[in-house]
Amino acid sequence: MLETSVEPVGSGRASLECDDLRVTLAGAAGEVDILNGVRLSVASGDFVSILGVSGSGKTTLLRVLAGLQQASGGQVLCNGIPVDGPPQGVVTVFQDYAHSLLPWRSVRRNVALGIEDRLSKSECAQRVDEALEMVDLQRAADEYPWRLSGGMQQRVQIARAIAMRPSVLLMDEPFGALDAMTKASLQDQLQQVQALTNTTIIFVTHDVEEAVYLSDRVVVLQGRPAAVGLSLEVELERPRRQVATKELPEYLKLRHEVYAALGQASAQ
Amino acid sequence: MTAVLRRINVVGIAAMFSVLVLWELSVRTGLVTFEYIPPPTRVVAGLGEIISSGELTTNLVHTLTAAVVGWAIACVVGVLAGLALGLSRATWTYSMASVDALRALPIVAFVPVAVLLLGFTMEMEIVVAFYAALWPIVLNTVAGLRSVEVRLLEVGRVLRLGHRGVLWKLRLPAATPFIIVGMRLGLSVSLVLTLVSEMVGNPAGLGFALLQKAQSLQPEQMFAYIVVIGVAGIVLNAVLMALARLLFPGQMAASGESA
C-alpha cells in the first residue's frame, strides 16, 4: 500500500488550479490543439461547472485535472502540488456508469473498492454504509449493479467516490445519460452530499440549466483550441429547489448569460 | 434446490427417452437389422455386465485420473503462462509466434511422440491430456486479461489501487469467466485425447476397453462404454461449473452463468 490514509493532504484548504494549460492530442489528421491557455482556480468547497459546446474540450480539461491525461504545457496544482497522475484526495466520477462499476461485485463491495485495503474491516463497513445512506441506496447494497436502473448505478459510483472522502470530486457529465426526472433527483442528492461533506466539486456538463442550478460558478469554454471564455458567479440562495429556484429572475438572467456565451462559442 | 430443479429440462429429457424407445422398437420389430447395433435394453444389460465384473470401475478410474490430473496441471501452467503473455508485452512479442504455430498443429499428432518418449504408461496419457488442455486455457486467459475495459482501468487509477490492486481487483476478476471457459474446453479435449492415447498407445482405461469390445464383437458392452464416456464428460463439466459458481458467484452471475 502506498498510503495508509485517504484524508486530504491540505486538510480542508483543498483547491485545484491550473494556469496556461495547453493540451494537444494526436488525431487522425495529425496533432490537434484542444486546450490553449486555460486558467482556472477552484477554492475549497466550491461547486464549479464547466460548460461548453460538444467537442469544446471540457472532458479533456477534466481528464487533465484528474491526472488521467498529460498536459502538453502549463501545469495543474492540487493543494499546491503539481499533478502527475491521479492525485490523492481527488476522485473522478465518469458518465458511463455501466462501464465504471465492477459487474461481479455487489453494490456494497463496489463502494468499498477504493478503501477496503486502507481501512480496517469495521471502519470500511461503516464508511460504505455512510456513503450508501447519503445517496439513499442502503436497500440495494447487496444487489449486483447491473440489476439496478441507470440512476441507481450512477448513485453507486457517486457513493464509491464519497466513500474515499475526497477533497475534490471531478464529475464528467455524470447525469448526461439519465432521463429528466432521475436527473433532477440526482442533482438534489448531489447538493445534499456537498452540503454534508463540503467537498469541492468540478462538474462538466452540456446542460445550462443544470450548471446554473448546481454551481457557485459557471465556467464556459470558448474557441478552438478552447480557453475560458466566461466565468460567472452564481449567487443563488442554497438549498436550491427545482421549481422555486428556477423561477427566480436572477436564475433566468444567469441562464440567459450562459446561453449567450455558448452561442458565441458555437458561432466561432 | 429449486434452482437445481429449474435447470432440469423436462421436455428435453422426454424427447431423449422417446428416441430411445423408438430405437428399441425399430430394432425389436426388425425395422432395422444392423447386427451390431443392439437395442437400448441390451446396452443396459451390457452395462450390468461390465459393472459386475468390476472392469468398468478400473477403467473409469484409470482414464479419469489421467485426464483430470493432466488437465489440473494444465490449469496451473496455462493460467500462469496466460498471465505472463497477457501482462507482459515483451513475453507476448517473443512467444506469440511459437504459441500460434504450436496450437495450430493437431494435438493428435503429438500422441505418437508422447508414446515414443514415455512408452505405454499412464504418465504418457497425463502428458497428452496436459498438452491438449493447455492451449485453450492459455489463450482464454490472455483474452480474459485483454477484456478489461479501459474505463475500469481508469477507475483503478483514480481510486489509486496500485499495480497489485489493479491485477487482483480488476484484471483477474474480469478474466475469470474467460479462464473458466478455457478450463471447460480444456477438460473436454483432455478427456478426448486421453481416450485417443489409450486407443493408439497405452492399452488401458476406457479408450482401450472400447476398442477391445469392438474387436471382440461385444457391441452391447461397447455401447455401454460409449454411454459411460458421454456421461463422464457431462458430469466432469457439471462439477467444474458448480465449483466455479461456488468460488466466483459474482463473475459467473455477471457473465450470465447465474447460480
Provide an overview of this structure.
The complex is a heterodimer of chains A (268) and B (259). Chain A has a domain at 14-89 and 168-176 and 199-268: Rossmann fold, CATH 3.40.50. Chain A contains 9 helices and 10 strands. Chain A has helices at residues 58-66, 97-100, 107-112, 121-134, 150-163, 180-197, 208-214, 244-247, 249-267, and strands spanning 16-27, 30-42, 47-51, 73-78, 81-82, 90-93, 168-172, 200-205, 217-222, 227-233. In chain A, the strands form 2 sheets. A 6-stranded mixed sheet of chain A has the order 6-7-8-3-9-10, with helices on both faces. In chain A, a hairpin with a 2-residue loop joins β1 and β2 (30-42). Mean pLDDT of chain A is 90; it is low at 1-12. Chain B has 259 residues and is mainly alpha-helical. Chain B has a domain at 60-193 and 233-254: MetI-like (MetI-like fold, Orthogonal Bundle), CATH 1.10.3720. Chain B is built from 12 helices and no strands. Chain B has helices at residues 2-7, 10-28, 40-52, 55-87, 89-104, 110-118, 122-146, 150-158, 162-200, 205-215, 219-247, 249-254. Chain B is globular, with a radius of gyration of 22 Å. The model of chain B has no long low-confidence stretch (mean pLDDT 91). The chains are: A alpha/beta (268), B mainly alpha (259).
